[in-house]
Write a structure and sequence with these properties.
The chain is an alpha/beta fold and about 150 residues long. The chain has a single domain, classed as Double Stranded RNA Binding Domain. Helix content is about 25%, strand content about 35%. The protein has three helices and six strands. The chain has helices at about 5-15, 50-60, 130-140, and strands at about 20-25, 35-40, 60-65, 75-85, 90-100, 105-110. Strands 1-6-5-4-2-3 form a six-stranded mixed sheet, with helices on one face. α2 (about 50-60) runs parallel beside α3. The chain is globular, with a radius of gyration of 18 Å. The relative contact order is 0.25.
């Protein structure tokens, strides 16, 4: 194999290894006015909770944040995330789950590849804020879910 072809294949492999993976389970409810978001004290991605709140608001859904969801809140959101270090901290993955009572009705996940360069590959997007990473998956999860107004 020629050196130039090997270089091209190596570069292509690095680019593929840098891409994030996402999964989305869209919400099928007819209308959601308010969600209660359970604060996760174990998540050290400071801008994740505000990004989740803004994603719901952008889709016409009000939010309330609690340390434990109150009983009269039919829609409850939980989230988890981890971060890694490569020159500075970055969000490696996140999972946002939406429940109606105890039934999972929607979910969105984001993950950078693990491995070289502290995880996340060589893509500079790994250092982007949480909103950049979760906005697309939140919008897919909430497609068609508009609150009043």
């Amino acid at each position: 194999m020629s050196a130039s072809r090997l270089s091209i294949l190596s570069a292509a492999a690095l680019l593929v290894a840098c891409s994030s993976t996402t999964t989305v389970r869209p919400v099928t409810a007819t209308k959601i006015e308010t969600v209660c978001i359970e604060r996760n004290a174990d998540v050290y991605v400071e801008d994740l909770l505000p990004a989740i709140e803004e994603a719901f608001r952008r889709n016409g859904i009000a939010t309330r944040v609690f340390d434990a969801s109150p009983a009269p809140c039919p829609y409850r959101v939980t989230y988890a995330a981890s971060r890694r270090w490569d020159l500075k901290a970055f969000m490696l993955d996140a999972r946002i789950s939406l429940y109606r009572d105890r039934e999972l009705v929607g979910e969105a996940t984001y993950a950078l590849p693990s491995g070289v360069f502290g995880g996340g590959g060589i893509s500079p997007d790994k250092w982007r804020d949480a909103a950049f990473k979760i906005d697309p998956i939140m919008d897919k999860m909430l497609v068609g879910m508009k609150g009043p107004g």
